[in-house]
Amino acid sequence: MSAAADNPGDFTPEPPPARVVGKEPSYPTARDHLRMFSLRAAAHLLDSLVVYGAFAGAGRVIEVYNLSGPGISPVLAFFAPQVMFRVAWFLYAGAMYSLCGATVGKLVMSLRVIDPAGNPPGFVRGGLRDSIGKWFSQSVCGLGCLWMLGDAERRTWHDMLFRTRVVRRVELLRGDVT
Questions:
Q1: Whole-number Å distance between alpha carbons of 38 and 94
Q2: CA 130 to CA 1: how far, in whole Å?
Q3: In the predicted model, is pLDDT for residue 118 greater than 80?
Q4: What pLDDT, on a 0 to 100 scale, did the predictor assign at position 54?
Q5: CB within 8 A of 80, min separation 6: which ones?
Q6: Rounded to two decimals, what is the model's pTM?
Q7: Looking at the predicted structure, is the pLDDT value of residue 93 above 80?
Q8: I need a labelling partner for 156 at 20 to 30 A (CA). Which of 8, 66, 70, 80 fits?
Q9: How far is CA 68 from the centre of its chain?
């Protein structure tokens, strides 16, 4: 025994544990947050073009059935296209998430939406996330979408509401998603 071990008042720190060689944890930086924000915004723009393009056909349905004519209530004339648009977005997002794990915009931007288990969200969860959840996130001056800039996991309000996360495809392939 050493003299230091005999004296209980003398404290000698233990050496640090041996360093494990392997993958170091990476923490997202402000640049990572901005990059992900811009990728998600571009994906949303592409998805909007797809849905609005399909919805232009639905606008023709509104004209054919005269849902915006003089005999229609102004409330119905305002809300009917809104409801139809949300239904169209729900069907589009739900179908894409259940078939491909991402919408067209996210596929182009190499992004994927996953649930806590790392799987695609599925038809109902994905459809609700993109139709109702995104509307909720955008309804307060876009604050719900901007929220990801300060969130450590880069989640928006609709991600938090539906327990999903958007990751880059590369992160999934490397196994960086926890």
A1: 23
A2: 67
A3: yes
A4: 78
A5: 62, 67
A6: 0.71
A7: yes
A8: 80
A9: 34
